[in-house]
Structure formats: structure tokens, C-alpha cells
Amino acid sequence: MIVHWVTKLADRIVKERGYNVTIASGITTSGPPHLGTVCEFLYPWALVKELKRREVETYFIFVGDIMDAFDSVPLTLKNYERELEQHLGKPLCRVSDPYGCHGSYGEHFLSEVEKVMEEFNVTLDEIVGSNTLYEKGYYDKYLKLFIEKFDYVKKILEETSLRKLPENWKDIVLPICKKCGKIATTRVLGFDIKNNRIRYICDKDVGYTRGCGYEGYVTIDSHEWKLAWRLDWPSRQDFLKVDVEGAGVDHHTRGGSWEEV
């Protein structure tokens, strides 16, 4: 007998997590919603509905990763290319909304995703931008832990990414440059644990933009930083108490983001 994937997953969730679960999903709103965007909320929503049918108490949270760097101007926004190009490399939450109706580019397209959800009758318990989670300090203790356990964290990152990191590599965190506002072009030089400071230089060339050369520091409590994504994701799953979150097959292959242990 053929059993639907939703049924299989729901069986496993109830067995392993019980009758009170948090389901998470999210997306980097780097441009207008598209077909792939729909998958990010329809799949978990199908699971939520099946669990609710079984009288499982669910909490469905959707995160907009708008602390990610703005790395290209979509073809559909070529009319705004001159305006947007000056923001390449900055967090999406720090890029101006070309339409002028939201606080940022990232927020604008996160709201568009929410509108598409409404068209599909998807009901969320919470939708939040990752910048809000950083600003509220949810990630602070995780960054402090990763700095304290830096050698161990680096070893794990090398094992899961299947690549040897340079001897002087320290980029477990991405500071936002005080001078140019970019997050894609900064490189960590060192950590001052006593004063909770991260020293960096903005000198990377990432192809679509270059650093300004500024050297300085950010403090942990300034929240002018973002964890590297391999650390950001599990940290968020921990403080949001996530039981279930989907991922593409690229995440579940060797060298992806998820290692079965």
C-alpha cells in the first residue's frame, strides 16, 4: 500500500515528539516570490494540517532571513538597478525598499511572501524577520559559546563542509561594516572575549562587490553581526524549540548542513 509522505512524517513526529510540536520554515527574501518560494510554506503547512487532524498542538513559525547579504539585482527589478546596486553586500534588512512602502527591501518581499500564503489559505502562528531575532539578543549566548569553543567549532565546520579552512580563518560570525554597511565583505581578525568585541576588516572581494578597507570592531551587544549560516540555523532551531523543519536534498548530502549521528 502506498502511504503519503505527510502521513509517514506525521507518524514519526508523533512517535518521537509527542502531541505538542513546533514546526519552522523560512526563506531569504532576495527578490519577488516564485515557485520555489511556495514549497517553503506549502510542504510544512500540509504537515501542520495533518498533525492538527490528529489533535496535535502545533506552532508554525516562518522566518525571513533578511540578515543575509543582498547579492544581486533580480531581472524583474532592473528598472531600479542603479538605486539598488549601491546596496550590494549589505543585509537585506538594510537595503532600501525600491517601492518605498516598507522599511527595507527584505521586509517588502517578506510581506509579498505573506500575501502569497494568504492566497493559499496558509495560516501561520508567527512570521518574523531574522533581524528582529538578532536585535532581541536571541543569538548572543550562542556567539559567546562558539567563540569560547572556537577550535572545536572550526573542527566541526571542516568535517561537515568537507573542506580544510585556512589557518587564520575566524569567520564564525559576519560583522556589519561600520563604514560601508556591508556584511558580505567583512573578515574576522580576532576576538576580545573580555570586552565582548569582534575585530574585523572589510577587505573581501566577493565578485559582485568589494570591501571598503575599513578596520574596526563590533560588540556582541550591538547586534551588528550575523552568525555564519551553518551556526545560525542550529542556534535558531534551539532557541525557537523547533521540532520539525524541512530542508532541500542539498542540505542532507555529505558536505551539506545536516550530519546524521
Describe this structure in words.
It is globular and about 60 Å long. Helix 1 (5-17) crosses helix 2 (35-53). A hairpin with a 4-residue loop joins strand 5 (186-192) and strand 6. The chain is α/β, with parallel strands linked by helices. The protein contains eight helices and nine strands. The protein has two domains: 5-135, HUPs (Rossmann fold); 140-227, no CATH class. It has a four-stranded parallel beta sheet with strand order 3-2-1-9. Strands 5-6-7 form a three-stranded antiparallel beta sheet, with no helix packed on it.
Please state roughly what percent of the residues sit in beta strands, choosing from under 5%, 5-15%, 15-25%, 25-35%, 35-45% or over 45%: 15-25%
Based on CA atoms alone, the radius of gyration comes out at 20 Å
Helix content: 25-40%
SSE run? HEHEHHEHHHEEEEEHE
Under the CATH scheme, the architecture of the largest domain is: 3-Layer(aba) Sandwich
What is the residue-averaged pLDDT?
A: 93
- Structural class based on helices, strands and sheet pairing: alpha/beta
How do the strands of the widest beta sheet line up side by side? 3-2-1-9
Q: What global shape is seen? A: globular
What is the CATH topology descriptor of the largest domain?
Rossmann fold
The fourth-level CATH homologous superfamily of the largest domain is HUPs
Query: Would you count the extended β strands for me?
Result: 9
Main sheet characteristics: 4 strands, parallel
Weakly predicted, low-confidence segments: none
Q: What is the CA–CA distance across the termini?
A: 31 Å
* CATH class group of the largest domain: Alpha Beta
| Domains, number | 2
Counting H and I runs of at least 4 residues, what is the number of helices? 8
